[in-house]
Design a protein that fits this description.
The chain folds into two domains: about 5-55 and about 310-399, Aspartate Aminotransferase, domain 1 (Alpha-Beta Complex); about 60-305, Aspartate Aminotransferase, domain 2 (3-Layer(aba) Sandwich), CATH 3.40.640. It has helices spanning about 5-15, 50, 60-70, 85-95, 105-125, 145-150, 155-160, 175-185, 210-220, 270-275, 290-305, 310-325, 350-360, 380-395, and strands at about 25-30, 35, 40-45, 100-105, 135-140, 170, 190-195, 225, 250-255, 265-270, 330-340, 340-345, 360-365, 365, 370-375. Helices cover about 35% and strands about 15% of the residues. It starts with a helix and ends with a helix. Helix 3 packs antiparallel against helix 11 and helix 4 (about 85-95) runs parallel beside helix 11. It is of the alpha/beta class. The strands form three sheets. A seven-stranded mixed sheet has the order 4-10-9-8-7-5-6, sandwiched between helices. It has a four-stranded mixed sheet with strand order 1-2-3-13. Bound molecules: pyridoxal-5'-phosphate (PLP). Pyridoxal-5'-phosphate (PLP) binds near residues 144, 227, 230 and 255. Pyridoxal-5'-phosphate (PLP) binds near residues 50, 199, 229 and 255.
């Protein structure tokens, strides 16, 4: 680590709150699947900003759309219409197969929006008594960092010290549709679930789970809300992870890669019967749906389609998983994943493995102590997967 790197890190540690524990690398440039640090060293980016960079770093088509929009109009607020948002939301509805969308900024805000939508539907349509609506969530969930969302987290790092929790949430084991069915009451308005739990360490539910969830929700007049912020937009080898089981949720929450890595953009897309319940003044965001965000979001979705990134994710993911499956080490517990959302679980903490990968030019992050997630930008080539797998093999030999 040279003096420059040390200076940047010291600056962060002095002036920034310590709510992250980053690897000791200071990045100053990115392109495609690669980033370069301030010392000029190149790294494979195997985190993709938690899947916000599916299109790769600094995609030129998205940059061009952003630059063009920046010279024309960037923000109006929703007090007026703008000539970009409608086209963006039309595309969001088209890719998700939904009727209406509501644009926000961060993922957590979109989850909050979905929570409000489900409660509103519970009161206005299902006839639940005011203040009594319940939402069912899953153990091990990660839906963001706002006070309401961390209040129904089962991870003490997320919730402890931040109570009291918002009432109206109930937790069931992930992957069990029977547990969901047993938890439903007449006051249940919605079920909020990740099709794969990314932050929990790439936890994949048993096959058929999402189909069963759809059935339980339909039979009980409960909204099925899929949080596809991390799994959506091609990450798991389909446009949305729910597409693997051919199910259509009532609400889909998206974020992360909707930004193309440029600018925070999120959205909730859903059925008209639900999204249509929002009336003027009931919800909003100063920046949500602004023209710059809309132009970037539209370009990001166009790049996913034009470059067939979901298909590419399926193909490259299969190849990568095979390469990871061939790794030899006595402490390997499991290799799992879907598309390019992959994980290597070991029998002991992997922070040191991540540090060794970093030294060899590959950035990946430990999740929950023993698991390393490998989720490169979806533009990765087969030769690049092979090169990354060779680095991982070499780091494992020394681990
Ligand atoms: C990242 C993430 C969020 C939160 O998104 P932010 O943009 O960080 O607020 C919510 N849900 C899932 C599944 C995520 O991976």
């Amino acid at each position: 680590m040279d003096a420059k790197t040390k200076r940047f890190i010291a600056l962060d540690e002095t002036c920034g709150a310590h709510n992250y524990h980053p690897l000791p690398v200071v990045i100053s440039r990115g392109r495609g699947i690669f980033v370069w640090d301030v010392e000029g060293k190149r790294y494979f980016d195997m985190l993709s900003a938690y899947s916000a960079l599916n299109q790769g770093h600094c995609h030129p088509k998205i940059a061009a759309a952003a630059k063009k929009q920046m010279g024309r109009l960037t923000l109006t607020s929703r007090a007026f219409h703008n000539d970009v948002m409608g086209g963006f939301l039309k595309k969001v509805c088209a890719v998700s197969g939904q009727d209406m969308a509501l644009p926000m900024n961060s993922g957590a805000e979109a989850v909050e929006t979905a929570i409000k939508a489900m409660r509103l539907w519970g009161y206005r349509k299902k006839g639940i008594a005011e203040g009594q609506a319940e939402i069912i969530v899953c153990e091990g969930n990660f839906h963001g960092r706002t006070t309401t969302i961390v209040g129904f987290s089962s991870d003490p790092d997320s919730y402890s010290g931040f109570g009291p929790a918002t009432p109206g949430f109930k937790s069931v084991p992930y992957g069990s549709a029977e547990a969901l069915a047993a938890a439903v009451t007449p006051n249940t308005c919605g079920f909020l679930v990740e099709p794969i739990q990314g932050e929990a360490g790439v936890k994949i539910p048993p096959p058929g789970y999402l189909k069963e969830v759809r059935r339980v929700c339909s039979e009980n007049n409960v909204l099925f809300c899929a949080d596809e912020i991390q799994t959506g937009l091609g990450r798991t080898g389909r446009m949305f992870c729910v597409d693997h089981e051919g199910v259509k949720p009532d609400l889909i929450v998206m974020g992360k890669a909707l930004s193309g890595g440029y600018y925070p953009i999120s959205a909730v897309a859903g059925r008209r019967e639900v999204m249509g319940l929002f009336k003027p003044g009931t919800h909003g965001s100063t920046f949500g749906g602004n023209p710059l965000a809309s132009a970037i979001g539209l370009a990001s979705l166009n790049v996913l389609a034009r470059e067939k990134l979901a298909e590419r994710s399926a193909m490259m993911g299969e190849h990568f998983k095979k390469r990871l499956g061939n790794l030899q080490h006595p402490d390997i517990k499991e290799v799992r994943g879907r598309g390019l959302l992959l994980a290597l679980e070991m029998n002991r903490p992997v922070r040191r493995l991540c540090e060794s990968l970093m030294a060899k030019g590959l950035l990946a992050k430990d999740t929950h102590e023993n698991t390393v997630r490998f989720a490169p930008p979806l533009v990765i080539t087969k030769a690049q997967v092979d090169a990354a797998a060779a680095i991982i093999a070499s780091a494992l030999r020394e681990f």
